[in-house]
Amino acid sequence: MSQERRDSSQQAAWFDYTDSYEFMERVRSGMPPLIICVACNGGIQGKEANEFIPETADEVAESVQGAYEAGAVMVHIHARDPRQLTQGARDTDTWREVLRKVRARCPEIIINSTTGAGPGMTMEERSACLAAGPEVASLNLAPDMSKFHLKERPAPLPFPRPALEIDECIPFTYGQIHEFAAEMKQRGVKPELELYHPGCAWVVRYLIEHDLLEKPYWMQTVMGYQTSSYPTVENVLQILKEFPDDALWLCSAIGSFQLPLTTLATLMGGHVRVGLEDNVYYSRGRKAKSNAELVKRAVRIAHELNRPIATPAEARKMLGLRSQPTQY
Q1: Residue 178: what are its φ and ψ, rounded to 5°?
Q2: Alpha-carbon distance 252 to 271, whole Å?
Q3: How many angstroms separate the CA atoms of 306 and 205, rounded?
Q4: CB under 8 Å, gap of 24 or more: what pairs does 156-164 form?
Q5: Contacts 24+ apart (CB under 8 A), 293-296
Q6: For the segment 292-328, what is each residue's pLDDT rounded down to a tens digit?
Q7: CB-based contacts of 240: which residues, under 8 Å, 6+ apart?
Q8: CB-based contacts of 268: which residues, under 8 Å, 6+ apart?
Q9: What span, in angstroms and rounded, lies between the C-alpha atoms of 117 and 80?
Q10: How far is CA 111 from its chain centroid?
Q11: Left (φ > 0), alpha (ψ -120 to 50) or beta: where does 104 sit?
């Protein structure tokens, strides 16, 4: 990084995370406040995996409130179909109800809806959340291929089902990604760019060239998901090398890799995603008791590493979002 670029970006929230000199300068002068995003549930696993995963709109709102009070300033949500809680919501009205209840309990939190959704959904169903008015929405930048075993969902849980074997691929072509990004821009929704491996940088460049993204770019490295990069420090650094200027880094990792890699991101000046979507355990052999518990640990680690925790207002400013939260 040139001295001119380093000086001009010194007070900015973004910087080149792989630049050794800027890292040392940021350690001396202070890293930007840490944005903590809580991924509160997910579109696949439910209470059969961890009894504290929220499924209904009321459960999501209550769980997010605990995480918000613990320090999370953004929530990534998978709304569930109330007529079949093991499946993702397919209509905008269901999404509106969930977002409304979250906002009522968490007045300032940044609401981030998924367009990744769950297995077996059409692209139109995946985009139903956008009309509900989230401030941020996830945007997958690569085909999503996965094969995994889902535990039996026994009674008395609602909507019991047998164990399942999932083997599918969600295509996410350039054209489909373009359509998602164009609708997000038209609706004023900031894309959260989901990078699964370094090749996703091609798609980021495509979106920038087609004027579909606004700075700063909100870019998430998704580590340890099937067909994503292996969750290693080396692979995180390689993806970061492909980031464009004006990019803010959010790090997520699956299962047991969540804690080490979000700690790495906290140390390096990035931002973190924790929560029951990505990791149902708190420690080896002990399941997490809430999303708040995982957020509290991220806060504690940040304080030990001299990182302040971003307030909702600070996070909105860093991300270039409206200062006033969307109301539902």
Answers
A1: -60, -45
A2: 9
A3: 34
A4: 157/46, 157/47, 157/48, 158/85, 159/84, 159/85, 159/86, 161/86
A5: 294/38, 294/67, 295/36, 295/38, 295/67, 295/70, 295/71, 295/72, 296/70, 296/71
A6: 999 999 999 999 999 999 999 999 999 999 999 999 8
A7: 17, 18, 221, 249
A8: 17, 23
A9: 9
A10: 11
A11: alpha
Whether 105 and 65 have beta carbons less than 8 Å apart is answered as yes
Residues 219, 110: Cα–Cα separation, whole Å: 16
**Burial per residue of 136-159, b for 16 or more beta-carbon CB atoms within 10 angstroms, e otherwise:** bbbbbbbebeeeeebeebeeebeb
How confident is the model over 149-184, as pLDDT tens digits? 999 999 999 999 999 998 988 889 999 999 999 999
Burial class (CB in 10 A: 0-12, 13-18, 19+), 234: exposed
Report pLDDT digits (tens) over 77-115. Answer: 999 999 999 999 999 999 999 999 999 999 999 999 999
Residue type, 158: P
Between 44 and 59, the more confident residue is 59
Q: How far apart are CA 48 and CA 29, in angstroms?
A: 46
Cα–Cα distances in Å, from 118 out to 77, 133, 182, 216, 295?
Answer: 12, 20, 22, 28, 24
CATH number of 31-150+166-319: 3.20.20.70
Token pair 């009309």 is found at: 131
What are the structure tokens assigned to 250, written together?
Answer: 């959010």
**Domain parsing of the chain, residue ranges:** 31-150+166-319
